[in-house]
Amino acid sequence: xxxxxxxxxxxxxxxxxxxxxxxxxxxxxxxxxxxxxxxxxxxxxxxxxxxxxxxxxxxxxxxxxxxxxxxxxxxxxxxxxxxxxxxxxxxxxxxxxxxxxxxxxxxxxxxxxxxxxxxxxxxxxxxxxxxxxxxxxxxxxxxxxxxxxxxxxxxxxxxxxxxxxxxxxxxxxxxxxxxxxxxxxxxxxxxx
Length: 192
What we know:
Order of helices and strands: HEEHEHEHEHEEH
Low-confidence stretches: none
Strand content: 15-25%
Distance between the termini: 46 Å
Structural class: alpha/beta
Strand order of the largest sheet: 1-7-6-2-5-3-4
Mean pLDDT: 90
Radius of gyration: 16 Å
């Protein structure tokens, strides 16, 4: 029932799904381009329309007794920034304890233009030994969907080539705020 309602609402808003949901039941979902506050509610709506349960992380202090139930119900995972385990280790441990876990990571970590993506998505996937699946909200075509799984090899520059090709024609709500698809970790490659 949720799938039908979400699909009809998206259609009413002029959006459509492109392709099918990822086959991987444990993966890191790259959320890009991320240029607007509308990205998050649309992401949740598309997840419902595809019939997938996604998870995302936020600092523990946002999970108050008043709002925690809602945050968890929407897939939120509280992370402790003061923990001796860093964010990457916390998320990798979460993967190891779950049979199904699709973790959305906004690689830009902001809605403003950045010159580099944060590498946490890549490090989490490497440490958890799970694939990376690119997702997109293309405001230019008003379509959303998932790309093919990428199993990170440790060759960051090579793996990022796939993501650059995938996102080259995707437009955020504010296209000028979507920066280059690259990590600082690959800057020794002069082809960028």
